[in-house]
Amino acid sequence: MNTIDDFHFLKTISRGGYERVYLAIKKNDENKTKYAIKLINKRYIVLNECNVLAIMNSQFVVRFFYSLQSKENIYLIMEYMIDDDLISFLCIKHILEKHEAQFYVAEIALALDYLHQRDVTYW
């Protein structure tokens, strides 16, 4: 059975109001597969994010592997996306070319459409 102690946290990827996302690897994984681990304090869980992520199967939604928990936190073990998130990209790029903006708006629209078709609300 997996525990959060099986992972080595490499760095913080992002921080939100009630959560943090870390880049991590399993300690005994010879392949050094990278994972994104979202830590959510149990006091702030509004939706059952684990169940929602478990049924998602789209190239536009990050892949969910499994969840772990401690007394105070829930850890979502998810696919690590190699590229930075859109906010980081925009901070570096500042201004997008028209074709770049169209591409990213289309990607976001497809992701939101996928979630909407499954009655998932995301904010």
UniProtKB/TrEMBL annotation:
Any Pfam family: Pkinase
Keyword terms of this UniProt record: ATP-binding, Kinase, Nucleotide-binding, Serine/threonine-protein kinase, Transferase
Catalytic activity entry: L-threonyl-[protein] + ATP = O-phospho-L-threonyl-[protein] + ADP + H(+); L-seryl-[protein] + ATP = O-phospho-L-seryl-[protein] + ADP + H(+)
Occurrences of domain Protein kinase (ranges): 7-123
Domain of life: Eukaryota
InterPro entries: Kinase-like_dom_sf (IPR011009), Prot_kinase_dom (IPR000719), Ser_Thr_kinase_AGC (IPR050236)
EC number: 2.7.11.1
Gene Ontology MF terms in the entry: ATP binding; protein serine/threonine kinase activity
Biological process, per Gene Ontology: intracellular signal transduction
SUPFAM superfamilies: Protein kinase-like (PK-like)
Identification of the protein by name: Serine/threonine-protein kinase greatwall
